[in-house]
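User: what does the whole thing look like in 3D?
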Amino acid sequence: MSTAVILIGGCALVTAAIKAAGPILLGGRELPTHFTSVVSLLAPALLAALVVTQTLADGKELAVGDHTAGVVAGGLVAWRTGSIIGCVVVAAAVTAGLRAL
Amino acid sequence: MAETATARDRFWEGFRLGVPFAIAGFLVAVSFGVVAREAGLSALAAIVMSAVVYAGSAQFAAIAIIAAGGGVGAAVGAAALMNSRFLPMGVALAPSLPGRALWRAAQGQTVVDASWALAAREDGTFDRWVLFGSSSIQYLTWSSGTILGALGGGALGDTDKLGLDAIYPAFFVALLIAEARSRRARGAAALGALIALALVPFAPAGVPVLVASLGALLGLTNRAQAEAREAREARG
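Assistant: Here's the predicted 3D structure for the full assembly of 337 residues, as structure tokens:
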């Protein structure tokens, strides 16, 4: 098999297995409130972690770049207007603008 | 069943809510198609990868390792770590999925970050039809964006110059702002961010984000517990 087939098949399999694990093990019943109140905070915790690892780190080093400024600008747009498309377009435009300087 | 009566409405509601994320995802997918070609994948391989893996950050992580000359095992491992956040997400979603284990697992495949966040209700349960609707539109644009990037990417030139790498994190910022309504949610976000940044120098890619889910343990405070009980009673 070619490398690409193993790469794609492997990524597809691990992704499917990870997404299946929770629903297989824990489905179809109501869980206690200490579980659900933790769960309701997972999204902000995970999203914030995704944002900072993609904007404030380069590999294993903490670093800022042109895209950091772009993402901050996009975040301001999302915060003030609630527009997701405005947010990503401004983020890309500011980043591109800084790189063109 | 009341659920079936409104399932279609909620599916389309999710579809509609997913549109802005789908448009942003389209731009990200274009850049994925370009990056995958640069890493040596054929256009077909890049397109198939988006169609069957459908997990942006994992795909980028795997391709980055291939591009750096790493092995396939390392690339798949990086994808798994990057996707490990879907474990707590799946655990959270599980009680809201009906049916037998295999059917729940199949429904769980529709989880992507934006859809999962859109489907989350304040009381910790999930609207699965919103999840399905939102993931459907995002799947369409994720696949079509990859096709455009993989086949036509050469015409774009250097995608870094276009700032496309800012789109993916900006997308998550927009989601986060929509999510962080309560003071406690903002606390969990701050804690998650701090944990992730503290781990970046030591842990392999993906692990900092997984461990950041510990920020959600703020939900164990007495006040959070009392509010969760109120929300459940209000839902009846």
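In plain terms: Residues 34 and 153 of chain B are 5 Å apart (CA to CA). Residues 2-38 of chain B form the longest helix (37 residues).
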